[in-house]
Amino acid sequence: MEGSDSGIYGNHPYAPRDLKLPGFVPGFLSQSTILGIYGVSSLLVVSLTWLFSGRSPRKSKLDRWLMCWWAFTGLTHLILEGYFAFSPEFYKNKTACYLAEVWKEYSKGDSRYAARDAGVVSVEGLTAVIEGPASLLAVYAISKGKPYSYILQFAISLGQLYGTAVYFITAYLEGDKFATNSFYYYAYYIAANASWVVIPTLISIRCWKKISAAVQVQAQGQDQKKNKTR
Fold first, then answer.
1. pLDDT tens digits for the chain (230 residues)?
2. What is the signed CA dihedral for 126, 131, 132, 135, rounded to 10 degrees?
3. What is the model's pTM?
4. How far lies 148's CA from each of 144, 145, 151, 152, in Å?
5. Using an 8 Å Cβ cutoff, are 87 and 149 in contact?
6. With contact defined as beta carbons under 8 Å apart, do 24 and 119 qualify?
């Protein structure tokens, strides 16, 4: 039952079954196609960033990997999450638009996306508009050795951790009942978001140590100057 009445009576793959999605149009692309395109695109971004970062012999492998991460996550925020935030009726799309297909598929793991949950839309919108461009700025900052590199990475990582925490906590408080089945729950809701918990945590710790060390060196330098003037 496609068309204006499709989805009104639960003719969709999402949970809960009484979720109302007037005009819902089933996805056109298979799961393997959607994930395959995403995987290849992500690999391409990481590979190109790695190659370009290698032009600077002064960059460590860790810095180059960080550039790859920020390029990947920045484009993910801007393109995927940006599309979701500003496409309130993606579930009605009839053109097999890849970005709409991604969110139709992901909604099997969290139907709040198809339902346009206010909390999810707010988090994703802010992530796309603020953290997306900031992540790409981090690529530039690392490549050029800018002094604000660590504080920028620290700020973005904290923002990602905060957004992920809100994402999981609100789902828990609402009953954690938004996945079609356990496979989609663990594959999409848990595993697909794990990177934005683990990696930002590690980056935050590293940046905290780097910033603390720099402040300590500066403080010691000021103490030495004071001692000389006495």
1. 333 334 444 689 999 999 999 999 999 999 999 999 999 999 999 999 999 998 877 889 999 999 999 999 999 999 999 999 999 999 999 999 999 999 999 999 999 999 999 999 999 999 999 999 999 999 999 999 999 999 999 999 999 999 999 999 999 999 999 999 999 999 999 999 999 999 999 999 999 999 999 998 877 766 666 666 65
2. 180
3. 0.90
4. 11, 9, 6, 6
5. no
6. no
